[in-house]
Design brief:
binds pyridoxal-5'-phosphate, 14% strand, 18 helices, 16 strands, alpha/beta
């Protein structure tokens, strides 16, 4: 992937791949979109794919595979134990992460389950740059607690800090001093920090964290699920990495970690996941959990086809042309939106473009779910599905009160190699149209609110019938156009 300069001076991301399998898309007219979002209770999780034009809900398990991945899947060697497929995957892991031992698991959270079961005891504290939903759930399930150690400015929506995912090292030292090393089973570093907008840590920061951990004899655990984007960012933003190959950078980072785990739904354009390490004692300890929860040690709940795809995908992740596609498309989308006055999280991260609903619809109070309302409005205006990441995604407290989220974002994920630049331009156009008419957007209120995971299954209604007015305005401005 290359950012190519046009004769006119403009720079655009140029796809370094061609598309040879296509899937037909459907863009329903605005009247049908209006109906579909009402039917879904204004919850984008409840829309059906048939009614969606561009699905920007997530980057998990929806990235396009390459010809080499698909052909590797055909030669997969199927057997319960000792398949050649597993050998191929294991040697790829050893090449990429320099790890001797690899324990397969069916996806990222399965690795988190194993690590939490093996290491976390009631009352323990796990320091990390920032939590991910499934990570936190597994740690708290075992009676542990998560402490987040980002710098204070990392959750500012707009910033020029190239490494918002960095640990604040002073906070890390303070936590170790306060909690005591016996109470800290491991320190977790999350690459491409998911919930703050796919923001990276620097290689230098990760090494500094591992040094502090070693001084105190504490294990370091890298969640490499979003390493692909983080890798691109250190390669392009961090002076010491610019002359290194992606493989050299990955090996350097890995050499400082005790344990690495990942979801291959993201890393490696495949499915599945796994844990690797060079510490024989740790591997022995984790092995029994793999056989207990996942499957035999040579498949861990994955099909051989998934493992073949992962092995090739990991190799392709060491190619700068491949890993730059996501971040460059996201940067393009964020820049174009910013030019049109639409508030987005900056600097552009991995994973997707994050629209700042707190400012986009600043007339909607947090108790009326600005990010949820904006996600519904984006769907009406474009047929594009994004994900609410704000107060709707929070769970009520025991006493029924509602915690307000620190940020109100709509995440528009960019599945890798799936969309074209004209589709991204379409998204930019419809969202900036919506921004022009943002005063037409109103709040939402729950009509069905489940006790847990309300953002998955809850249904809401528009306060004051604003959706019809928005659809009417769309017709007025776009005529017969979809
Ligand atoms: C997606 C993700 C996970 C969980 O992986 P699954 O395969 O969805 O279980 C863990 N950590 C991070 C940072 C992720 O983005």
């Amino acid at each position: 992937m290359a950012n190519i300069k046009f004769f006119g001076g403009e720079t655009i991301p140029l796809e370094m791949h061609k598309v040879r399998i296509v899937q037909k898309l459907n863009l329903p007219p605005v009247e049908l979109r209006l109906e579909a979002i009402k039917e879904a209770g204004n919850n984008t999780f409840l829309l059906t794919n048939r009614d969606i034009f561009l699905d920007m809900l997530t980057d998990s398990g929806v990235n396009a595979m390459s010809d080499l991945q698909l052909s590797a899947m055909m030669r997969a060697d199927d057997s319960y134990a000792g398949s050649m497929t597993f050998d191929r995957l294991k040697s790829k892991i050893s090449k990429v992460f320099g790890a001797k031992c690899f324990l397969p698991a069916h996806q990222g959270r399965a690795c988190e389950n194993i690590l939490a079961q093996a290491f976390v005891k009631p009352g323990n504290v796990v320091p990390m740059n920032y939590h991910f939903t499934t990570t936190k759930t597994h740690i708290t399930h075992m009676g542990g607690r998560v402490v987040e150690l980002l710098h204070d400015d990392a959750i500012e929506p707009t910033s020029t800090n190239p490494f918002k995912g960095n640990f604040d090292l002073d906070k890390l030292r303070a936590v170790i001093a306060k909690e005591g090393r016996e109470n800290i089973p491991f320190i977790r570093l999350e690459a491409g920090t998911n919930l703050i907008g796919g923001q990276p840590f620097s290689l230098e920061n990760a090494i500094a964290v591992s040094k502090i951990a070693k001084e105190h004899d504490i294990l370091t655990v890298l969640d490499a699920s979003l390493w692909q984007d983080n890798l691109y960012f250190v390669k392009t933003r961090e002076a010491r990495c610019m002359d290194m190959t992606p493989l050299e950078i990955t090996r350097e980072l890995a050499s400082h970690m005790d344990i690495i785990y990942f979801s291959a739904r993201k890393l490696g354009f495949a499915r599945g996941g796994g844990i690797c390490s060079n510490n024989e004692e740790i591997c022995q300890r984790l092995k029994e959990f793999v056989t207990m929860y996942e499957g035999f040690l040579t498949y861990g709940g994955m099909s051989v086809r998934e493992m073949e795809a992962m092995a090739v995908g990991l190799e392709e992740t060491m190619d700068e042309d491949v890993i730059s596609q996501g971040p460059q498309f996201i940067e393009f989308m964020c820049n174009e939106l910013e030019k049109r006055g639409v508030p987005v999280v900056t600097p552009a991260g991995g994973l997707g473009c994050h629209v700042n609903a707190m400012s986009f619809v600043d007339h909607i109070g947090q108790r009326e779910y600005p990010a949820g309302a904006l996600a519904a409005a984006i769907y009406i205006a474009s047929g594009i599905r994004g994900m609410e990441r704000g107060t709707m995604s929070e769970q009520r407290n025991e006493d029924g009160s509602e915690p307000l989220s620190e940020m109100e974002l709509v995440r528009l994920a960019m599945p890798r190699r799936v969309f074209t630049l004209s589709q991204v331009s379409y998204a930019v156009d419809r969202i900036s149209w919506l921004h022009e008419h943002r005063r037409l957007i109103g709040g939402l209120r729950f009509v069905e609110e489940p006790k847990t995971l309300r953002f998955f299954f809850g249904k809401l209604e528009a306060i004051g019938g604003w959706q019809e007015k928005l659809a009417e305005q769309f017709r007025k401005d776009f005529g017969d156009s979809l």
